Amino acid sequence: MSATEVGHGRVFAAEALGTAILIMGGPGSAVLAGDRIGALGVALAFGFSLMVAAYLVGHVSGCHVNPAVTLAMWITRKVGSTRALFSVAGQVVGGIGGAAIIYGIASGREGYSRGGFASNGWAQLSLGGYGLGAAIVAEVVFTAVLVVVVLGTTTERFPAAMGPVAVGMTLAMIHLVTIPVDGTSVNPVRSLSTAIFSDPDLDHLQQLWVFIVFPLVGAVIGVIAWLIVDEATLESTMLDTVQTRYVRDAADKVGDSVVDAVEDTID
């Protein structure tokens, strides 16, 4: 999901288009066809939508279509600050636009009630009755997983043509696991877009903060996890400070000591 250097206007447009495709295909499948395709179908629709969007606009903007992914790319210095801002702005516009299209289609059905409109939530809004703590853990952990996979597909060793497949299937897997918990966000714009069109008598907008804050937290953790397993150095990221270098070096010493002890035991 890498991209060549292009103008910020094209980045904005590409992210808007890609995010609109994700929202129309993902939440759109839940709103318009969820009773027919079930959770498996919705999960695959999210994955296929991201895959299609990535093949379409990945060469232009990288197809982040997710502020958490953009944050990870910014932290790892894969995109600059201005480009990141244009990316997120495009994501917000595209996400709301995609949700508006789905709402326009759904409202044309006789007797339509928008209800939750495939929005995220916990407690009484959770399909499985999961609480706030479960929602927080799910969003942090699975956003981190998504970020690690995205960063992995941007390395020179990874076949570029397979990046959209890997990331799309990761998103599908995440939805298969977490739809019952909180409807699956791992993407603040996905949550914002649907919450705006949900029934105002429900609490989706009041609970929205969780699905903005914790995917961003998960993105930071995902970057840290990537630095542990990849050859990338801490010094090449925004996380480079005296304190983080000290923690990194201390962890390396502990790891080396453990390896030496194991090798001595085996010998």
Task: Describe the protein.
By secondary structure, this protein is mostly helical. The protein has two domains: 225 residues, Glycerol uptake facilitator protein (Up-down Bundle), CATH 1.20.1080; 34 residues. It contains nine helices and no strands. Helix 4 crosses helix 8 and helix 6 runs antiparallel to helix 8. It is globular and about 75 Å long. The N and C termini lie far apart (45 Å). The model has no long low-confidence stretch (mean pLDDT 93).
Reconstruct the topology from this structure.
Layout: H1 8-61, H2 67-75, H3 81-106, H4 132-153, H5 163-182, H6 188-196, H7 204-207, H8 210-229, H9 242-266
In brief, what are we looking at here?
With 267 residues, the protein is mostly helical.
Key words describing this protein structure:
2 domains; globular; Glycerol uptake facilitator protein; mainly alpha
**Per the principal axes of the C-alpha atoms, what is the gross shape?**
globular
Tally of individual helices: 9
The oligomeric state is single chain
Can you give the helix content as a percent range? over 70%
Give a quick account of the main beta sheet: strands, pairing sense, barrel closure: none
As a whole number of angstroms, the C-alpha radius of gyration is 20 Å
- Please count the beta strands (DSSP E, at least 2 residues each): 0
Spans of at least 5 consecutive residues with low confidence: none
Number of domains: 2
Indicate the CATH topology of the largest domain: Glycerol uptake facilitator protein
Give, in order, the helices and strands: HHHHHHHHH
Under CATH, the homologous superfamily of the largest domain reads Glycerol uptake facilitator protein
Strand % is under 5%
Report, as a whole number of angstroms, the end-to-end distance.
45 Å
Overall average pLDDT: 93
